[in-house]
Amino acid sequence: MAEITVRDAARNNAxxxxxxxxxxxxxxxxxxxxxxxxxxxxxxxxDAVSVVPGCSVEALVSRxxxxxxxxxxxxxxxxxxAVGGFEILFTAEWVCLDRASLPRAxxxxxxxxxxxxERWETAWGASPPERPFFRRELLTDPRISVLxxxxxxxxxxxxxxxxxxxxxxxxxxFDLEGDIESVWHEAASAAQDIWxxxxxxxxxxxxxxxxxxQAGFKTIGSLVVWINSPHL
Length: 232
Prior knowledge:
alpha+beta; Aminopeptidase; 11-stranded mixed beta sheet; 11 strands
């Protein structure tokens, strides 16, 4: 199998952003350089994601609502958006795991219905103003699996996996038991159990990045998320 690159991870992540935003009635647009949304996207989701290095900042900004609150994911950490009034919100690393061992089958499953998705979202723990945030349409998309780790009927961890290209992306990884390393590895295993032994990618920062590394993920590149905000 060909080596997985940032291009693979960025494209997969942009596809996830597109699918998620569509469940909120927001239809993004693609060109060879980026995925963009002319309408402001939901909380935590960028208004644009570059999918090739060196894309035009002017062209990228022209395709979004670049007013206060706009965010752009610079997937290759090679753009200078400061010239457009943006500031760095955070930096992170793209990570990749080629193969994972099988998870404990009794602990991991795929969310099957809206009621279970609601419980998953509550356990996930963030409080965006858009509710429900993860909507039932995700459950009928064959490219997406909402993964849940359960113990005694209680949600104790989870992640969202999306298949795109030659990789599976992991996002929204969380854990309620103080063992995020296991969640990264087991969620990757669960995703590969669904789609086969193809590489799993994602991005993280801080403690979750360290946990992903401990779970066997390797850094393949860097990214920057920029935001236009007078409050930074």
